[in-house]
Amino acid sequence: MRSIFPGYYSLSEDNLNDLWDRAVLVLDTNVLLDFYRVSPETQSDLLRLVRYYAGHERLWIPYQVALEYHDNLYEVIFQQVKKYDDTLNLLTQFFNSITQKRNHPFLTDNYIRRIRNLMKDLEHYFESQKKKLKDSVGESALKDDIADIFDGHVGKGFTEQQLVDIYAQGKVRYSSNIPPGYEDKKKGEPEKYNDLVVWKEVLEYATEQQLPVFFVSSDTKKDWYLIQHGETICPQPALIKEFQQETNQTILMFTLERFLSLAKERNVVNIQDDSIKEVKVQDRKDNSIINTFSYFSNLKFDDDDLIKMCESLKEVSMHRLKKYEHRSVVDAEELGSTSSNLNESIIGDNQNGE
Questions:
Q1: pLDDT of 87-121, one tens digit each?
Q2: Does the first or last residue of the chain, that is N or C, have fewer Cβ atoms within 10 Å of its Cβ?
C-alpha cells in the first residue's frame, strides 16, 4: 500500500537521513520575500542556511519564483513601511486617550511628560526603521546577498508555448480541484496558474537532475495541504504521488519554521531559537496592538500601574516591529510542525521519534 499511496505514509529513518544528505532545497516565492519581513538576526540565519545549500550545489528556485520575487519585492517593502505608520497611529490614539483628564483625572503632569518621552522615543525609532526599509528599495546588502547566493541556481523557465499548454492543463485540473493552485482560480489570468507553473518547474527539475527535493513554502492552503476539520494533516497526497510518478524521486514539503527547526536539530548550520520563533506561521488577523489599545483605553489605572504599562507597551511594540512575523495564513496557526508524507510532521514525530 505504501508504494500506491506514498503521501499517506512516513519514510523510514534511513530514507530520511539519505534525503537530508542529498535533497535539493527549493524555496517558494513567499519564503524569499519573508527575508524582508524578519529581523536582521533572523535574516543572517536564513542567509547562512541558503549559502550552505548553494555551496553544496543543493539550492535551486524555479524561474517563476524568481520572477514573482522581483515583481513583488517593492510592494512587500512598502507594506512593512506602512506597518510602522499604522502602529504609530494606534499608539498616538492610545496616548491621546490616557492623557485626557476626563479619562484619567489623577494622572499627574510628570507622568504625562514621561509618557510623551516614550512616544518620542518610539517615533524616532519608527522613523529610523522606515528609512532603512525605504533605502532597501534601491540597492541594499540583503538584496545583493540574495542575488549573489542564487546566481546560477535559478531555473531556465518555460517557453511561451509551454506556458500556454500549462494554462490549458490548469483549466482542466482546477475544474476537478486537482492541486496545486486551484484555490487561486478566482484570480485573473495567467496569475491564477502561477502555483501550477512553479510545480511544473519543480517536477521538470527533479526529473532532469534525478534528485529528491525539499520544498519550503508558506502557502498552506488546502490545494497544497490536506486539511480535515480545521486540522492540517499533511501535504496533499495527490502532489506526493504525482511527484513520485513523474520524477521517480521523493519530495518533502515544509513550512519555513519547520524546516529551520529540523535543520537546527540536524546541525546543518547554526540557527538561533529566536529565528525559529520569529518565522513561525501565525494567523495575523489577531492584531494584538489594536486589541491592546482597545482594552487599555477603557480601563482606569493608578499612576504607577499606568507608567509601568506604558513602558511595557513600548517594549512590546519595539519587539514586534523589529521582529515581524509571517503574513496571515488561513487555518495555519499551528502548522509549524507539518511536513510532507507526514515525514518529520506531527504524525511523523510520533512514528519515527523525530
A1: 888 888 877 777 776 555 666 778 778 888 888 88
A2: N
Three-state SS at 38 = coil
Task: Supply 236's cell numbers.
Answer: 496533499
Q: If you average pLDDT over residues 165-179, what whole number do you get?
A: 97
Cα atoms in the Cβ-side hemisphere of radius 13 Å centred on 337: 10
Q: Taking the complete model, does pTM exceed 0.85, yes or no?
A: no
The pLDDT-based confidence of 156 (bands split at 50, 70, 90) is very high
Among 146, 326, 325, 320, residue whose Cα is nearest residue 220: 326
Using the structure block, give the residue that is written with the C-alpha cell 519550503: 216
| Type of residue at 295 | Y
Q: Specify whether the CB–CB gap between 205 and 320 falls below 8 A.
A: no
**340 within 8 A of 253, measured Cβ to Cβ:** yes
Q: pLDDT digit string (tens) for 242-271?
A: 999 999 999 999 999 999 999 999 999 999
Measuring CA to CA, which residue among 339, 238, 346, 338 is closest to residue 4?
238
- The DSSP H or E segment spanning 25 is strand 24-27
111 touches 308 (CB < 8 A) = no
Task: Classify each residue of 54-88 as buried b or exposed e, where b means 16 or more C-beta atoms within 10 Å of its C-beta.
Answer: beeebbbbbebbbebbeeebeebbebbbebbeebb
Mean pLDDT of 25-49: 93
Q: Which ranges in the chain belong to alpha helices (H)? A: 13-22, 29-34, 40-55, 63-98, 109-135, 141-150, 160-175, 194-209, 237-247, 256-265, 273-278, 288-296, 303-322, 346-352
Query: How far from the centroid of its chain's Cα atoms is residue 84's Cα?
Result: 19
In angstroms, the Cα distances linking 199 to 19, 57, 205, 259 are 20, 21, 10, 19
Q: Is 318 helix (H, G, I), strand (E, B) or coil?
A: helix
Buried b (16+ CB within 10 A) or exposed e, 199-214: bbbbbbbbeeeebbbb
Tell me the C-alpha distance between 248 and 202, whole Å: 13
State the Cα–Cα distance between residues 181 and 219, nearest whole angstrom: 10
